[in-house]
Design goal:
The protein is α/β, with parallel strands linked by helices. The chain is 25% helix and 30% strand. The strands form 2 sheets. A 4-stranded mixed beta sheet has the order 1-4-3-2. A 4-stranded mixed beta sheet has the order 5-8-7-6. The radius of gyration is 17 Å and the shape is globular.
Length: 151
């Protein structure tokens, strides 16, 4: 079996969160869905996000649950197939109620943008130019090719 990742996130309102992520194009595995949790499929066979109602999430940890609107507990970063796919997913998220905590960033070899979901979790989206990435960020900076963030 290949390694899979299951990210667990607390949510205040499961139905609202499912509606939000459905609007972004994600689907959910009904086998792992009930009134306390659902399994969002990000990349079938590889990446899943378990959205857990806060009360249920609390049963997995003795620590208090971070309020993602006041502090950052994690940055979730997903790669996209193109720069336009990054922008399209951010636009879908905003249309579904998300906010954008920062402007897009163009590093020359990599393009980033993201959104804050309904519960305050930060989702970064990135696309890396395969050719430019061969040289990495160090050569971009050394050559003075790093670009200012896009407007």
């Amino acid at each position: 079996m290949n390694t899979q990742i299951f990210v667990n996130l607390p949510v205040k309102n499961l139905e609202r969160s499912v509606g939000f992520f459905t609007a972004l194009g994600y689907r959910f595995n009904p086998q792992f869905t009930n009134e306390d949790a659902t399994c969002m499929v990000v990349d079938d066979g590889h990446i899943y996000v378990m959205l857990l109602v806060e009360k249920f999430f609390a049963t997995f940890t003795p620590k208090p649950i971070a309020d993602a609107r006041r502090s950052t507990e994690v940055l979730l970063c997903l790669s996209c197939e193109s720069r336009s796919a990054v922008d399209a997913l951010v636009a879908k998220a905003v249309a579904a109620g998300a906010s954008t905590p920062y402007k897009p960033k163009d590093h020359g070899f990599m393009y980033q943008h993201g959104f804050e979901d309904l519960d305050g979790h930060l989702w970064e989206l990135m696309w890396m130019d395969p050719e430019a990435a061969k040289h990495g960020p160090a050569s971009q900076e050394r050559d003075g090719a790093e670009q200012a963030p896009a407007a």
